[in-house]
Fold this sequence. Notes:
By secondary structure, the protein is α/β, with parallel strands linked by helices. It has a single domain, classed as TIM Barrel. The protein is 37% helix and 14% strand. It has eight helices and eight strands, in the order E-H-E-H-E-H-E-H-E-H-E-H-H-E-H-E. It has an eight-stranded parallel barrel, surrounded by five helices. Helix 3 runs parallel beside helix 4. The longest helix is centred in the middle third of the chain and has 24 residues. It is globular. 42% of the residues are buried. Ligand LCNOYBR7 binds next to loops. The site of magnesium ion (MG) has 4 residues, from loops.
Amino acid sequence: MIRLAANLxxxxxxHDFLDRFQAAADAGFRGVEYLFPYAHAPEALASALRESxxxxxxxxxxxxxxxxxxxxxxxxxxxxxxxxxGVIEALRYAxxxxxxxxxxxxxxxxESADSDTLAAHRxxxxxxxxxxxxxxxxxxxxxxxxxxxxxDMPGYFLSRQDQAMAVLEExxxxxxxxxxxxxxxxxxxxxxxxHLERQFSAIAHVQIAGVPERHEPNVGExxxxxxxxxxxxxxxxxxxxxEYRPAAGTREGLSWGRDYGLAG
Length: 264
Ligand SMILES: O=C(O)[C@@H](O)C(=O)CO
Ligand SMILES: [Mg+2]
């Protein structure tokens, strides 16, 4: 069964952040995800979850200075202490929100990156992910890594599926898993169903959006009904994060999800 989660960083932005939980529930979503919870007290978020009856399915660890263009810390040499503090802070929120999985963003390479820079990022990434996975395991949580397309995020360290699979293997932690975002994979590599099949056992969460505009999933070059059918055939039991920017209003664009329980 396809279970849809609303990404509250992109959907329902017509509402104040804490009101988006109820708006998502009213539209038929049973789960929510978003980039970052840290601007709000965990108690306020927990009460928004409780009152709306939706589950918190995912959020991201602190990403460094987002306004300054940072996109995660996990692979950044010299920022290990900050990354590790962020892991502890994210786990504190995960406990308060009952959230089972956390995304650790990798960060960007400098423009001048050479092979030594790449090797240093890779070594830092592996060590930091080992730390994050061990801390998360003590609390029964998962840590996810997500390849992101370098057109939207130039220089992002983790951009390809085989790179992510090699990192998962090298870290070797059962609770370190893959966040498979069909939008990013289509832009970087295509061949979505074959990637899904090959990586299925590593996948803990998937996300969708239309390509190339990142609007509703029924607009653009990806045929999501075939992907949903394949997820069902494979027995996918996780959530499908709806991480797209509505072309007009959020509610106005939900008709694509009628077959999956949305009030479009
Ligand atoms: O795909 C994305 O953009 C997100 O899942 C994310 O976590 C980083 O922006
Ligand atoms: Mg994503």
